[in-house]
């Protein structure tokens, strides 16, 4: 069974069609990057897949569960790390992780184990008792992803996970994202082409709400007739605009 | 329970903000001390401690609207609430999680105010305990107003509306600082149609052990609290759907 399958997934806001009959399949354990210029429909797609926005028409199935008729089961298997660092600023790192474990209904002993496990995996031990609001952008982003993993999601949505980070922090986070590959299905949105190329098993390019192309980074480059991924992306998007 | 995890977070966010502690506890205590000193130098019946303390308690509770609304508006403005919307938390969990944790804070705030009032000369009687418990409908009113404002306004707007407008409305239209009868006319009529003066009069009656004097004020306060809670829940659900 595919991890995600969208069936003519559409979202309209009055006259604007933000996502237009999207047909996308994501395989189990795959890391798929959703690429597109601003307004391409990436965020709206993620919002629909995570139950934040109801589609105007069409449907999507996450591990076979419909986002329309089985949203409870869908919520139980997904996690989101939003673009903006979504942490509780006056809570410590440890308390933020415990909060996420608590809202997912874990018992007290499990909460403790979860916090210890994720603190170790993400190297958060040294800042565990610091308030999240006082951390640097890189640490906050790390915490944000760790919070998303508390529930052991089957499908993880990472929205611009390294936006605004310096090269070192980005490289560290890439390592953490790579470590997730194969363990869960990851949908990544990013504006950084090198990030998409370095991390993705496959890439899906969207333009004006429509899916233009899907393929491995190598296939995308071959399709565009260039060996540079960013150039390939530009060519494909420009071609679609004609 | 999921709702407790969320409630605990909201409690910590509010209690760890030094500005909240200053306005929630420090400011009412400063007012109590200051007005008691003034009353000792220039005796005014309105500022006698058994008259003043219930008013300060109600005024102090009005800041809960600001704290609650700011927290909710900030959560809405950031991606934090969106993150939580993708978890198994339900709409009821969110509403209870924002409302319930503030009620014990309100009770604690009222108890501290009455405790300070005892140190300043208020007779320590069992009526104080009942007075503290009777702040619950007043607390629900102000906390629900916070849920309403936090669901409708941005955190910047909340600062102006709840921080300046509501606290001033509570102060001016509650009979804490001056006898509303001295102004009379439309001003007094409007004040009597709003819950603030009734909250103060209810607390004053409970404190002096006047059971009959609690009525009809408690109906006004409870009615407003119930109505505002219903509207606030509606507003929160609406914004949740929009997000």
Question: What does this protein look like?
Answer:
The complex is a heterodimer of chains A (242) and B (243). With 242 residues, chain A is α/β, with parallel strands linked by helices. Chain A has nine helices and eleven strands. Chain A has helices at residues 42-49, 71-77, 93-103, 108-121, 137-149, 167-180, 193-199, 217-224, 229-241, and strands at residues 4-13, 16-22, 25-26, 31-35, 57-62, 65-66, 78-81, 155-159, 185-189, 202-207, 210-215. In chain A, the strands form two sheets. Chain A has a six-stranded mixed sheet with strand order 7-8-9-4-10-11, with helices on both faces. In chain A, strands 1, 2, 3, 5 and 6 form a five-stranded antiparallel sheet that branches. In chain A, helix 3 crosses helix 4 (108-121), helix 3 (93-103) packs parallel to helix 5 and helix 8 packs across helix 9 (229-241). The radius of gyration of chain A is 18 Å and the shape is globular. The mean pLDDT of chain A is 93. In chain B, 47% of the residues are buried. In chain B, helix 2 (18-41) runs antiparallel to helix 3 (49-77), helix 3 packs antiparallel against helix 8 (155-172) and helix 3 (49-77) packs across helix 11 (195-207). Chain B is globular, with a radius of gyration of 18 Å. Chain B is an all-alpha fold. Chain B is 81% helix and 0% strand. Chain B has helices at residues 2-15, 18-41, 49-77, 80-85, 91-99, 102-119, 126-152, 155-172, 180-183, 185-193, 195-207, 217-242. At the A-B interface, helix 2, strand 7 and helix 3 of A face helix 1 and helix 4 of B.
């Amino acid at each position: 069974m595919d991890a995600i399958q969208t069936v003519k997934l559409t979202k309209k806001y009055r006259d604007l069609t933000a996502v237009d009959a999207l047909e996308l399949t994501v395989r189990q354990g795959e890391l798929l990057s959703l690429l597109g210029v601003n307004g391409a429909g990436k965020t709206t797609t993620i919002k629909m897949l995570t139950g934040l926005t109801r589609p105007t028409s069409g449907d999507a199935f996450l591990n076979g569960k419909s986002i329309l008729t089985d949203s409870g089961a869908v919520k139980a298997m997904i996690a989101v790390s939003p673009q903006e660092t979504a942490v509780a600023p006056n809570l410590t790192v440890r308390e933020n992780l415990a909060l996420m474990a608590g809202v997912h209904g874990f018992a007290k002993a499990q909460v403790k184990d979860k916090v210890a496990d994720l603190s170790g995996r993400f190297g958060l031990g040294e800042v565990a008792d610091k308030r999240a609001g006082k951390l640097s952008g890189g640490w906050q982003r790390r915490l944000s992803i760790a919070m998303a993993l508390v529930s052991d999601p089957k499908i993880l949505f990472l929205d611009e996970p390294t936006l605004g980070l310096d090269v070192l922090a980005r490289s560290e986070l890439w390592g953490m994202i790579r470590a997730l590959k194969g363990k869960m299905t990851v949908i990544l949105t990013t504006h950084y082409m090198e990030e998409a190329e370095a991390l993705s098993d496959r890439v899906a390019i969207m333009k004006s709400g429509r899916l233009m192309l899907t393929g491995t980074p190598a296939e995308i480059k071959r399709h565009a007739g260039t060996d540079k991924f960013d150039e390939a992306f530009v060519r494909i998007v420009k071609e679609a605009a004609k | 329970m999921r709702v407790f995890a969320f409630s605990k977070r909201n409690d910590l966010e509010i209690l760890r903000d030094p500005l909240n502690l200053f306005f929630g506890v420090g400011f009412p205590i400063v007012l109590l001390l200051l007005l008691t000193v003034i009353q000792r130098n220039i005796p005014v019946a309105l500022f006698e401690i058994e008259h003043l303390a219930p008013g300060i308690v109600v005024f102090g509770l009005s800041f809960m609207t600001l704290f609650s609304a700011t927290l909710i508006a900030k959560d809405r403005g950031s991606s934090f609430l969106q993150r939580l919307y993708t978890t198994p938390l339900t709409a009821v969990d969110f509403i209870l999680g924002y409302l319930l944790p503030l009620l014990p804070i309100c009770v604690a705030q009222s108890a501290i105010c009455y405790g300070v009032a005892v140190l300043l000369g208020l007779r320590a009687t069992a009526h104080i305990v009942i007075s503290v418990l009777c702040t619950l409908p007043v607390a629900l009113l102000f906390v629900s107003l916070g849920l309403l404002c936090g669901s409708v306004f941005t955190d910047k707007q909340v600062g102006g509306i709840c921080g300046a407008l509501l606290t001033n409305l509570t102060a001016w239209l509650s009979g804490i600082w001056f006898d509303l009868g001295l102004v009379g006319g439309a001003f007094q009529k409007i004040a009597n149609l709003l819950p603030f003066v009734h909250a103060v009069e209810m607390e004053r009656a409970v404190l002096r052990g006047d059971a009959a004097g609690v009525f009809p004020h408690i109906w006004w306060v409870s009615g407003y609290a119930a109505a505002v809670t219903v509207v606030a829940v509606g507003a929160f659900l609406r914004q949740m759907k929009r997000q």
